[in-house]
Amino acid sequence: MDNPSLKDHRQIGQELEIFMIDELAPGTIFWLPKGMTIIKQIEKFIRDQNEAHGFQEVQTPILVKSNIFQKSGHFKYYEHHMYNMDIEHERYSLKPMNCPETALIYKSKTRSYRDLPLRYSEYGRLHRRELSGVVGGLLRVIEFTQDDGHVFLKNDQLENEVLNILKWINQFHALMGFPSKFYLGTKPDKALGDNKIWQMAETSLKNALKKSGVNFEIREKDGVFYGPKIDVDITDVQNRTWTVSTVQADFNIPKQFDLEYVNEDGKLQRLVMVHRSIIGSFERFIGTLLEHYQGALPLWLSPVQVAVLPISDKATEYSRKVYEKLKEEQIRADFDTTDKPIGAKIREATLQKIPFMCIIGSKEEAESVGSSGYFVSVRTREGQDLGQKKLSDFVKGLKEDIEKKK
Length: 406
Ligand SMILES: [Zn+2]
Hints:
By secondary structure, the protein is of the alpha+beta class.
């Protein structure tokens, strides 16, 4: 850690019970209930956005015959990063990427120009080998889930499609509070496909970058062997940069898998494929989030949003009603029923980075008598006293902030 006052995501993950690691499964993550709550929120958010952007969700097999990767050309470059095994005299692999199998879905029927752009999204569980010495925490894993997306389109649709994806990525990073920078990687020395199509794709990507108004630079020869790419780096609280999102054009898979559509003249025509990922992998993204926010995640992502803390035993009954009301309103709440003094309960909820605490004693109960609702005293994890509030008003405010993803 460059800044010793900041905690590593592994320490945060352990203290907040987000995830665990066991030597029996090196380089992989055991997600604990609170970690799964974070994942489910991000999944839901991306899933809703996928739908709004015209993506249809699919799921492709994890274990697949290796020859699909021979056909796609990945085996040549990736074999040593893949888990390969023999089953009944045939070679199988755990997929290191989703693209070739998504190409099979495209190819499963004849497509017309009217079907394009055709967009598929997938939360794909991938495996990529790493040396055991370099795996660690959420940032270097051998098994991860990618928020993947593939678009099949005509050459003249490339610029507009990439533009829409760039705007989406830009909004997403602004929402998450990460400053981001975009990089266009152009044709590398070892590249597949002819110059004309490379030029067309590079121009489309560059135009999209310009139109989107994002901050970008060109990295010469940093494209992938199959096409130019845009990487989006974020800067975290420690000034480290991480590549999170990516948009890539691909001419190789369409060629290898003969991906075509019937054009306006009734003739078969080759298409372009676009790979895109908004968050990259859930593992790495959550690791970065935990460090960036030092565990104090935004309200909508917090595994527990409100802690209900009775001041004494006498307030337990009334506190339980408040807790149940919060649950009923779909607020993620915790109820501290221990007999610890209130100061210790507040300290515990603060250490657990729970955004809000409802502190309840006889005063709050007395307020609610004869009125139409419950009263609670609200405190934030930053130690700010928000005073006594009507529970219904407090819940209304919470819901608005969750909706706005504040
Ligand atoms: Zn892909």
